[in-house]
Protein: Xaa-Pro aminopeptidase
Organism: Kineothrix alysoides
Amino acid sequence: MIQDRLTRLRDRMSEKGIDFYMIPTSDFHGSEYVDDYFKVREYFSGFTGSNGTLVVGHNMAGLWTDGRYFIQAENELEGSGIELFRMMEEGVPDIPDFLGENMKSGQTLGFDGRTVSCKEGKELEQKLKSMDIRIFYEEDMAGDLWKERPLLPNHQVIVLPEEISGQSMEEKLLAVREKMKASGALYFTLSKLDDLMWLMNIRGNDVACNPVALSYSFLTPEELYLFIQPQEVTKEFTEYALKNHIIIKDYKNIAEFLNGYDYKGKVLLDKGNINYALYKILSDKAECVFESNPTEALKAVKNKTELSRMEEVYLKDSAAVIKFICWLKKNVGKEKITELTAAEHLDGLRREIQGFLDLSFPTISAYKENAAMMHYEALPESAKEIKAEGMLLVDSGGQYMGGTTDVTRTIALGEINPEIKKHFTKVAVGMLQLTQARFLYGCTGRNLDILARQPLWDIGIDYKCGTGHGIGYILNVHEGPQSIRWRFAKGAAEAIIEEGMVISNEPGVYIEGSHGIRTENVIVAKKGEKNADGQFMFFDTLTFVPIDKEAIDTTCMQPIDVERLNRYHEQVYLRTEGLLTAQEREWLKEATSPLRI
Amino acid sequence: MIQDRLTRLRDRMSEKGIDFYMIPTSDFHGSEYVDDYFKVREYFSGFTGSNGTLVVGHNMAGLWTDGRYFIQAENELEGSGIELFRMMEEGVPDIPDFLGENMKSGQTLGFDGRTVSCKEGKELEQKLKSMDIRIFYEEDMAGDLWKERPLLPNHQVIVLPEEISGQSMEEKLLAVREKMKASGALYFTLSKLDDLMWLMNIRGNDVACNPVALSYSFLTPEELYLFIQPQEVTKEFTEYALKNHIIIKDYKNIAEFLNGYDYKGKVLLDKGNINYALYKILSDKAECVFESNPTEALKAVKNKTELSRMEEVYLKDSAAVIKFICWLKKNVGKEKITELTAAEHLDGLRREIQGFLDLSFPTISAYKENAAMMHYEALPESAKEIKAEGMLLVDSGGQYMGGTTDVTRTIALGEINPEIKKHFTKVAVGMLQLTQARFLYGCTGRNLDILARQPLWDIGIDYKCGTGHGIGYILNVHEGPQSIRWRFAKGAAEAIIEEGMVISNEPGVYIEGSHGIRTENVIVAKKGEKNADGQFMFFDTLTFVPIDKEAIDTTCMQPIDVERLNRYHEQVYLRTEGLLTAQEREWLKEATSPLRI
């Protein structure tokens, strides 16, 4: 079946004079998750994992995916003739390198320019330019061959009232237009969905786990054009649009519109967050100013309303996780629980919370050595059964009308050996040490990262990821520009930590084949004392879930570490006990009782 | 007298058609200290401080200097008609701004282009270009008017034997030429004196506290030209030059040489470390590659010989400081000691050390509130008398045939109040915390700075400077490229901390009008464990001088902080006791005895 599909694709490629065709896994906005409509790569390869790019030549087909999916991809690709390229393994070329080696002068590379970011497209251009290779990006050639392709998702948008958004669209527009002006741009093309939702105070439901609507916007000094599917526009939204002078256009006409617009000045666009097809139009028709979307930094600083709603939502979400841990500890070994059914139990607890919209990402439930894989995904056929031993790592979150949550706890289900206890304790110490940071305004995540990492570095262990990422408000669970990490990609912008930024704090230990530990709270930056030395900053905590004392070894802690843990646990109990049953409360009382120094 | 001199200068300016003339305090190499020959600004202003720039117009004369010298400058400028510009005070323009406001289109600004760095010169160019102002930089117009000007310093150079340098000039040249090649440069003009001394394995004595010879060098793929005053060339050096194919030229002919050279490729030069006059020649005659001097990073990584000699020298230097502290504690209140005589006593102890060449910078000896000024300079007329109360901050170092040292201790001379004790303790905790850092290779000083600063930030205090700077080997006490600080100037390069880099570690507290504390050790980066997570790094300590327990409050410390201090003190005693008298040893025994947790 896959071979038939590939044959049809190759025939089409021949017609169009295309030598290699690339199918990434992306919507037109670079979203973290994609709807079924965008699963063209799955249709042509049979591989169902969430990350992968298919490259089809006339004599080859290859699928690039990451370590999470090597085994699954091997199984799913069997018999298809598609070669598996294991990303990041030694000797395995990345796609630009592969194309550079396998394409010949005068040949043509094809892809749907809407599913490739401007940045990636330009990198390919750069690589292939000198080889005289043409790029054909104007058509969704593969997608057109997909019989019974699902429709584009087109759920109705909702308008956030100001008691939820905390700031009117008018005020937000004013701030964005000031930034446009400062950049010397007359226009601004925004296609990053969460930024767009933030700006317009609307939410959608077109991307799993991200409450966003497929849309584009184009700002001029006076006008705001919104490109959205007509089915998504409700009566409420039409009225809102009228009141806010939003000019509604059809989603499918964005390219035509930008192509035909009469530009009288520069256009601001964000290289990493606009697709290659739109970039080509804009750079052809107008002078471009390449900058981060001005919405990004504005969105990252949460306003008072957002923060107070998040505080409330995080307590409810924390209570759900507490209920889950209590349930798991009581039932493990007594009934059959797998990684997947445990996740389902937790997801169910979240669904009961008032204002629940969706999960903020698929729950990661990883038992024992599976937890050593940072992005482990339990699959129905291989999910591990959870027994009364070892540890379960659960990383999860929800979307609520009032905030987006993200929390990780690693739960001891039996006796934990001293080595693992030590690792667990160091992770907790680092997490609390970063939480307690007092720092001068002007610090970026690079300055602070070592506070979380140092207890692990001290024992010769590192975690191969950042310590923290920004978190949206009823939006994406990963957002920028802030980030806590010790290294940044070359040329990457580092954001100063501003009051009102919400950030995850998630050090961990990942020992391949043995165990994985991650303890993640979400914290929010606040202004502290201001004196002659400057403006001091500190973090408040939003997450209140006990850190498993059964995996703590106080001999690996300084008195201040124990104090911090005890103080945190005291708050966990005080803040969440009212949301629990008597039985859960009793359990929590014990789980948060102070450790002795 | 000053007015006569200024009149002569103005006459000369009129002859040459110059409207404003600027006289900075610099030699031709941007050295940190300057010889008497270069004190043209002092000659024309009467101001004797170490930092200041004179600007003379036909109707005004102004002197810019920093906070250390405001009072002194006021006194010394009295009656001269020269206006004092207090740098960094609110409402006081800097020189480019002042010139921008006071010069008119078509006018000419003059200065000796050799005493202004390329970077500063280009900034002035940038500022004045649009105003159609000419810059005349080709003559030392003011210096020529100085009657009885001292001669250029011209001390004989010495050649370091390989048992001192640890690496032959040939090997160093090879490494530098590789870097030139990598930068696409055929030539390299090096005028930073310490880099030049390092490259050639020679030392001079033309700059106070810096054992360097006034010189330039010009490298081609095959040749090395050295421009140096003939008086500095010894028979030993002539032989060494012959053996190493060094082409010796006269120092005064560098401009002529670079002007007449037949360039067949690009020239590498370091914008921040070449003077404006040479830059103008090079950019006129050849294509320039602007990069840090390739010698800088090579010089910063000390080789085994250098490190083992430094270890030895640091012990002797530490012993001198221990002797000093012991002497001070025993004699304070019994005989008259001032900030200056205390410094002289310490300097005398250093002079007795075998291999002593010079101080590495003028000893800072600051009593009580004077210590709150980071760069305080005790002057004969105003040096404070030291009594048996308060604290004395002493920051000092030596140049030895075997290393350059730098150490600061703040010494309690009586009962210390709890607030100051707390500050002192937090400084010590931060210094030891940074010393104990284990970190992955790839970290820069920005990642680590918070380890020293956090105990102070925790109590709402900051010090307005970096935590650490690189230290030369029988060279400048301040060198790059490494640096430990939490912020870098925009666009400043951050150096990864490499094995063999020697760095100061000097957190402090500076409370204006009250007290100042600085505790400074010198540490050296080493490779530690290498495992699947990467190459871990750590620091070894070179400085072994007790940290005053009389100013320590263990209630502000965690047990690990006390342990670290005790372990350090144990090493101080073990390593230095053999270098002390019986009486000093007895004192040190007590000064390093363990504190109880």
